[in-house]
Amino acid sequence: MNYSQLKQEVIEYSKTIGIDKIGFTTASPFNDLRNRLIRQRELNFQSGFEEKDIEKRTNPSLLMSGAQSIISIAVAYPSKMKNRTISKEGERRGIFSRASWGLDYHIVLRRRLEKLEEFIRDKVPEVRLKSMVDTGELADRAVAERAGIGWSGKNCAIITPEFGSYVYLGEMITSLPFEPDTPLEDQCGTCNKCIEACPTGALVAGGQINAQRCISFLTQTKEAIPEEFRNKIGNRLYGCDSCQTACPVNKGKDFHLHAEVEADPDIAKPLLQPLLSLSNRQFKEKFGHVSGAWRGKNPIQRNAVIALAHFKDQTALDDLIDILKHDPRPVMRETAAWAIGKIDGKNSRAALEEALEKETDEAVIFEINKVLS
Ligand code: B12
Ligand code: SF4
Ligand code: SF4
Predict the structure, then answer these.
(1) Where is the active site (predicted)?
(2) Domain with 67 in it
(3) 123 occurs within a structural domain
(4) Mean pLDDT of the chain
(5) Is 161 near ligand 3, meaning CB less than 6 Å away?
(6) What's the CA-to-centroid distance between 213 and ligand 2, angstroms?
(7) Nearest Cα residue to atom 27 of ligand 1
(8) What is the number of structural domains in the chain?
(9) Which ligand is nearest to the CA of 151?
(10) Catalytic residue among 32, 104, 122, 134, which?
(11) Cβ(116)–Cβ(205) under 8 Å?
């Protein structure tokens, strides 16, 4: 088998199935990453969404016997929304981060990886392959970096010279000895714009994140968001793009190459107030196909309450008081009490006192008392 010819054929084929960049690396262990993951864990800088088994994360041979190479793929997504909806007084809108516009990227990339698997199997029937996107054991960025897809930026993202960091990543472990590509040189230089732009100081050093402080992480938690971060969330309903929008390499990068990842403005930037009363079924129907829906409706509704406070939206007060008095979820009541305080605590005293009389949850009582005092 001529693997260098097969590699060329794979590259050519990938272009025909909507893969924007492809790179190859060996299946040897990721030793730097291993040390980094251990360190991040020791510092409690991880989000908890990472695969726990560091050996599996860093040694592809443990995931597939006979692993010889890894093919890394990148699919570009837009940075600007077509037909953008406008957030105005009385009709305030929240925002999903760009990686959650359009169809869930896990589906988008898996489809492409499946086609690529089929193509390779057709040529080498005895081949062994294992593909993954995001939820697999491997660190998609570390694979992409080593496969020459992009360099690892100070904002932690893989930055491609062609599409900036607005690319989704996925990979396929193979049993074929493809020639590895060369990693790209780091092009961040003396720039520090992403670190300066991070609203919460989550980027503690170039290329090092304290995920516990990252707004992207916080918008995905199920608990009440610690008060120090609430004012920084703004109108973000899911994820955060600040360290990417600040990046000079991303300036002017806006690729509309795939219909599936185009934003529906009413979903990617939805009205906040109607969000508050959605049932689980209604939420699934409207948002179920986007990646930002993976934690269900509760975090999104909590973030919508925070966003209404950010806009100081007086027209939302009745809805928020209703949540404070009647919502069965303590996190929603606690966040609503805080939001009422932000919007108009003074004129809402009667409602807050009334809610306090019936409230039994300690955190909610604490929050109401804080607003009242
Ligand atoms: C957990 C997770 C998160 C967590 C933690 C993020 C983090 N930086 O670790 C949270 C929820 C915060 C998050 C947020 C986001 N995420 Co996320 N996330 C993941 C996930 C599942 C695992 C990441 C992980 O293992 N992190 C641990 C750290 C230590 O490793 P890493 O950053 O992945 O890898 C780099 C470092 O280890 C570094 N490194 C290794 N050793 C050393 C040593 C030194 C000295 C230095 C400086 C660096 C260094 O090199 C690696 C390659 O760059 C991956 C999918 C996957 N399976 O890999 C997606 C993934 C990283 N996320 C992605 C995206 C798009 C995002 C967001 C942009 C989404 C958003 N808009 O809100 C933000 C960006 C936040 C940020 N600045 O990183 C993409 C990244 C695409 C890209 N172009 O880089 C991924 C790859 C998903 C995908 N398949 O497309 N995410
Ligand atoms: S995603 Fe937002 S909060 Fe997280 S590191 Fe980037 S700028 Fe900071
Ligand atoms: S903002 Fe500057 S330092 Fe940060 S990732 Fe982009 S180029 Fe690198």
Answers:
(1) 134 (proton donor)
(2) 3-174
(3) yes
(4) 98
(5) no
(6) 8
(7) 37
(8) 1
(9) 1
(10) 134
(11) no
- 31 appears as a binding residue in the annotation: no
Residue 166 C-alpha to ligand 3 middle, in angstroms?
Answer: 13
* 156 is annotated as contributing to ligand binding: no
Residue 71 lies inside a defined structural domain of this protein: yes
Q: Measuring from atom 18 of ligand 1, which residue has the nearest CA?
A: 134
191 lines ligand 3 (CB under 6 A): yes
Burial annotation 191-217 (CB, 10 A radius, 16+ → b, else e): bebbbeebbbebbeebbbbbbbbbbbb
Burial class for 251, CB neighbours closer than 10 Å (0-12, 13-18, 19+)? exposed
Residue 51 lies inside a defined structural domain of this protein = yes
For the residues 227-248, what does the mean pLDDT come to?
A: 98
134 is catalytic: yes
Q: Which two tokens stand for residue 156?
A: 């932690």
pLDDT in tens, 249-307: 999 999 999 999 999 999 999 999 999 999 999 999 999 999 999 999 999 999 999 99
pLDDT digits (tens, 9 = 90+) for 106-117: 999 999 999 999
Q: Which residues of 279-307 are buried (b: 16+ CB within 10 A; e: fewer)?
A: eeeebeebbeebbbbbeebebbbbbbbbb
What is the value of pTM for the model shown? 0.98
Distance 101 CA to ligand 2 centre (A): 18
Contact 352, 345 (CB under 8 A): yes
Residue minimizing CA distance to atom 4 of ligand 2: 214
